[in-house]
Amino acid sequence: MESPNPFLAGLRGRCPNCGEGPLFEGFLKVAPVCSHCGYDLAKADSGDGPAVFVILIAGFLCAFALLFTELAFSPPIWVHIVVFLPLTLFVCLGLIRPLKGVLLAAQFANKASEARHD
Predict the structure, then answer these.
(1) Exposure b/e, 9-30, CB count within 10 A at least 16 = b
(2) By CB neighbour count within 10 A (0-12 exposed, 13-18 middle, 19+ buried), where does 111 fall?
(3) From CA 56, how far away is CA 103, in angstroms rounded?
(4) pLDDT for res 118
(5) What does the alpha-carbon distance between residue 96 and residue 45 come to, in Å, rounded to a whole number?
(6) Can you tell me where the transmembrane regions are (predicted)?
(7) pTM to 2 decimals?
(8) Helices 49-73 and 77-109, interaxial angle, to 10°?
(9) Using CB atoms within 10 A of its CB, is residue 65 exposed (0-12), middle (13-18) or buried (19+)?
């Protein structure tokens, strides 16, 4: 059996070990164990990495679009609020789960885990 690309599996929200089982239990909560292959996902922790990438990517896209709109069309402020607040929300929510999956898959691919001495 050929092992899946862990980065593509993480991007799709699937287990980086088998590519079949779900990586998440909820929207962002990582499943403790893969339901398909039994791989222990509890040790994976992406930390603040996904949020940083979301801020950088969404901030660039939305701020550029807002500034372009302001300079090109000079709409009233309420147009910016009505258009760009929901746009920013949807872009951020759309990016956070795939980016968390990719960072968790990167941990798997590099055999990294949290070092705990409890």
Answers:
(1) bbbbebbbbbbebebbeeeeeb
(2) exposed
(3) 15
(4) 52
(5) 14
(6) 51-71, 77-96
(7) 0.89
(8) 150
(9) middle
